Amino acid sequence: MFEFIExxxxxxxxxxxxxxxxxxxxxxxPTFRGKDGLWRNHDAMKLATIDAFYDNPKLVWEWYNxxxxxxxxxxxxxxxKAIAELEKYAEVVVLTQNIDGxxxxxxxxxxxxxxxxxxxxxCTVCNFKEEILEEFSDVPPVxxxxxxxxxxxxxxxxxxxxxxxxxxxxxxxxxxxMIIAGTSLVVSPANTLPMYAKQNNAILIEIxxxxxxxxxxxxxxxxxxSAKVLPELVSLFKKSYD
Length: 242
Ligand code: APR
Description:
By secondary structure, this protein is α/β, with parallel strands linked by helices. It is built from 11 helices and 9 strands. It is 36% helix and 18% strand. The strands form 2 sheets. It has a 6-stranded parallel sheet with strand order 3-2-1-7-8-9, covered by helices on one side. A 3-stranded antiparallel sheet has the order 5-4-6. Helix 9 (162-173) runs parallel beside helix 10. It starts with a helix and ends with a helix. The structure holds adenosine-5-diphosphoribose.
């Protein structure tokens, strides 16, 4: 599977992962666009845009509440754990589009949540922010200042926090190996990260059972699941180092 990089495995000192919903699929969290994805039962544009939120905050909160419960039950899978274990052999940074916190739960120490986090909420007006781990009984929840609270996530049409994006780009620009796992690469600007890495001569590896918009730009494409493939990558490092 990894013959392509086997001999140079010890050259990889800075590894960046770009991950998406697919890496959490084996933890029981549905993807957005995969065959049985989340969006199949919901109209994406009705749930994850600022307009949809102001149009019907209750509906958007009900959907997030449902996702929060699903995510709080979820455990990291072998793919998340393998990424965490790889920190023994290289500097590893995870640039994730996921808001489920499973990389951190698996033990990854450097995770940038490009699209925010399901546990974080913030006020739509004042600068109140908090991490809430339980379900909201009545939605939409209201801030002490009297305005409604919203999930602290990046919705379609909103830009990523400037500092998060700047950091993500600099990690992409300075890695020697980028592994793109579990993402369809259809949402920008996350889908530009592989290009930054490629411009800096990083090797790109895609791990996805399906084709993506950038499969032909990759150095290596592995048509399989992350929970299966990533532990194999770790054993390759283990063999070369231990
Ligand atoms: N292992 C690896 N990849 C998988 C697996 C798996 N077990 N199962 C599915 N996949 C792949 C699918 O083939 C698909 O290409 O994961 C990808 C998931 O793509 P999306 O559902 O589009 O999710 P993602 O790329 O994370 O979406 C990006 O879009 O809706 C917004 O903000 C949301 O962060 C999300 C962004």
